[in-house]
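# nightly structure sweep
# worker-07 picked up a monomer target from the shared queue
# config: single-sequence mode, recycle default, output format = structure tokens
# input follows
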Amino acid sequence: MPTVLRLEAYRFYFYSHEPNEPPHIHVDRDRQSAKFWLEPVALAKNIGFSAKELKRLQTIVVENQTLFLEVWNEYFGSSNR
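# output follows
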């Protein structure tokens, strides 16, 4: 599970065994977890985050979208989309 970013209590990462899915990022805090698609940025899954916190997380994902896509493409290769 390559960690791409740690920000405050959040960890942004992807699983190394998900190359057949579109680019996305997972985010965890404590026992909450969410998954965001990266192109375009959209919530894919949520377990436990409030609507307010999801909005904040989506803003963080948008602000770091370029970084997340670069790391995804470096890891999986841009042809795996």
